[in-house]
Every structure is written in structure tokens, then in C-alpha cells.
Predict the structure of Tellurium resistance protein TerC.
Amino acid sequence: MEFTDTLVMGTPLWMWGIFMAIVVILLALDLGLFHRRPARSGSRKASSSAPFTITIGLAFGAWVWVYAGPTSGKEYLTGFLVEKTLSMDNIFVMSLIFTYFGIPRLYQHRVLFYGILGVIVLRGIVIGIGAWLVASFHWVLYIFALLLIFTGIKMLLPGDDEPDIKDNPALKLMRRFLRITPKLREQRFFVREPDTKTGAIVTWVTPLFVAMILIEIVDVIFALDSIPAIFAITTDTFVVYTSNIFAILGLRALYFALAAVIDRFVYLKPALAMILVFIGSKIFVADLAGWEKFPSTVSLSVTVALIAGGILYSLWRTQRDPADTQRDDKVQDAKTGDL
């Protein structure tokens, strides 16, 4: 057996190598080619790259389908779509964080880029722990399933309040132990400035750095939903990790593409709630029916139908009169000017 055929978590090393090479190339292009310098066109470039990153993620799923088989391909696509849909909540919270700190779109790319780098590492750690738990204790899957059902039902109930950034415990902790500049220092995370009490030159962190840390924490919280969801779809570690990472790689571009219109997708959240309930329930259904595994074709079909239904119904119910849209844009511009 050649070295490249060595199995790593059940998958040949050469497949992991192809995946990592694509990720490195995408990150290098993002940082080195498209955003070498901050520019006002940066957010437009990012939003226009959203279809590109989604296409790469889907193309990788097609490759998995060919080389690992239809079942793995369907499981990858299901996991990719579920993670993308869960990302809509991430986008909403990211928008709140940027608004709270008054971070202009000019500098948001820097926060999201380095934030996503951290997310890739954190997701790898969490997925590794999840894979070990599932392999060592199969009953953990049932806990994941119950967690998904509970989360889905909770999302369907009224009273889901908007997150309060000001009273966030992590923010309070950072304010207590870190020197934070009152205003941005362009796109820098750290600056050397005089201490307000002693006058000595010390290191300060900027609101840009604080925003990045909060985004990392938000992702860890959201991983409590997404990781059980993907393991309820498949226990193939390669499929779990690659579908998650490709969905995350496109999160920055998706943010710039959808941040301004995220409020239009009001019925996507109930659709996502039903997806979580479905994914959690199918583990118990498979056991009751005596199946070794719930059919991947059914999982993919139901997921696609619910996501498409949520998006289309949202767009239909939130059709706006052009005059109203222009009026709202002016109000938003006024708010932005006050930051």
C-alpha cells in the first residue's frame, strides 16, 4: 500500500490532501489576490464571490459522490445545505456585532477572514471530539438526535429574543481584563498607546479584535446545533468535516451578499427548525423500521424541499413596494451615519 492510500479516519490520505489543498488555495486567493488592501469595493467583491464559493462546495460534493459513492455524496450535500442554512443565524448575529461596534463594511472583511480561520481550527477540534464520542459510545447519537428535536421545537415556539450584545458575558469579561480602545484604529487589532492612568506605552486591543473574538464564540455556540446535525446525517468524519468547512468558507461571502436583506428570509427559520426535527427523528425512525440507515436520498430530498420552500415563501410574503424599500434604505443610511 502506498503512503497516499493510508487511511486517516477511514478515508485515504490523498483525499484529505486534495481537500486541504483546495482550502489553502481558496484562503490564499481570498487574502492575497482579492483583498490585498482594504477598499470600498471589498464588500462588493466578497458578495460577488458568494456564488463561486457555493459552486466550489457543491463541486466538491459531486467529486465525493463519484469517488466515495452516491451515499457519501448525498450525505455530503445534505450536511452542506444544513450547515449553509444554519449559517443564516450566524449572519444575523454577525450583523448585530458589527452594528454594535460601529464597524464599517470597509473593515468587516478582515474580521470575518481571520474569524473564519479560527473557526476552521475550532470546528476541526469539535468534530474530532464528536467523532471519537460516536465511535466509542454509539448511544451519543441518540443524545444528538434528542438535542436536535428539542432545538427545532424551541425554534418553532414564539419568544425567541434578539441577542443582547451589550450584556454578553464574554464582552463583559474582555472589558474587565483587556485594555480596549474606545474607537477603531482603522483595520488594526492591536495598538501601542499610552495607558490612561500611568502614561506608559502599553498594548491595547481594538473593537475590531473584540468583534472577531465574539464571532468566534458565536460560532462555537452555533456548533452545538450544527455538529449534532451533521453527525445525525452521517458518521463519516471526512464527509462531516469537509461539508462543514466548505459551508463555512463561503460564510464571509454569504454575509456580504445577504446582510442587507436577511430580514426578508423570515420563514427560513421555521423551515430550519423542521429540518432539525426531521434529522433528529430519522435516527429513531430508522431503528423502529429496522433499517441499518435512514435512506440518504430521502434525507437530501426533504432537506432541499424544506430549504427551498422556506426561501421561496419568505420572498413571496416579503415582497415590498419599491417606494417602501427606498424609504427604508434612507432610514438605514441615516442610522449608519450616526454610528
